[in-house]
Write the structure tokens for this entry.
Amino acid sequence: MVQPARRSRKVEKMRPIRLQETFRAVFYVPFYAAILRGAYAAEGVEVTLLDGSEPAHAKDSVLQGRAEVAWGGPMRMMLAHDADPDCPLRNFGAAVLGDPFFLVGRGPRPDFRLRDLAGLRFATVSEVPTPWWALQEDIRQDGLDPESLSRHTTGTMQQNAEALVAGELDVIQVFEPFVSRLEDQGCQVWHAAASRGPTAYTTFMSTTANLREYAPEFRAMLKGLGKTLEWLHATPDAEVAATVKPLFPELDVSLIERAIARYRPLKIWTPTPYFPAEPWEKLEHAMFTAGAIKRKPGWAHCVDNSLMA
């Protein structure tokens, strides 16, 4: 049974908040658990989740006033500030600071190195750009020019998974639950992107105006998210999976549990919502070297930790 979060003793009257989802993914567990366990309500703020299906639209929902806050990749922040130095968007409240993607291949390859991608039929994620931008820098660090790879770029993760099983590809880039499903079909994980260390992946985002206007509500949300992260790190995988299962009706709870069990030791989820500089700078450098941004907007300019106090 899901235990609701404990309600704070002192609760001030707050305005309801609309929270825009970027898209549905298992690695967003902290955000889902916070809502389903009533962690925000326990801090006195009513939060409504707006379903998302197109990652690029989450920030637009905030900019256009359909939501007060969204979650999504700091990558979107970097692109926005690269295009417009006066962009009002800011990141705050980190939950995912590890890369949730993997390279999965046909059969075991325990001695795999990224330089071994040379000559392999390799497919990268097409749905979002961050996984490939980040992996490019890892490949460079391992002594291989990523531009030299024969890379399949147009298939979805589902299409690439089917091609891998059919023997049409050698290795693909995917996240959970594709990884666990592929393992059931004889494939194996060759590389976990989270092994590079902290990388900025998912935080709240809103405008500077909203951060001022809704400071009490956002501060309460950060408290709720922080307590959820504490719960997540102290709770068995099976219980976490059962908690978020209502938002994944198409997935068996055992598959969600396996995904959580795979992610947990990789430490992709933060201990607190504080957003430090290192993960931001690692992604920013990867995007810069990949040519995705022409300048580095900077952690100090784009991240607001002031509501953590």
Q: What stands out?
A: The chain has a mean pLDDT of 95. The CA atoms of residues 14 and 216 lie 7 Å apart.
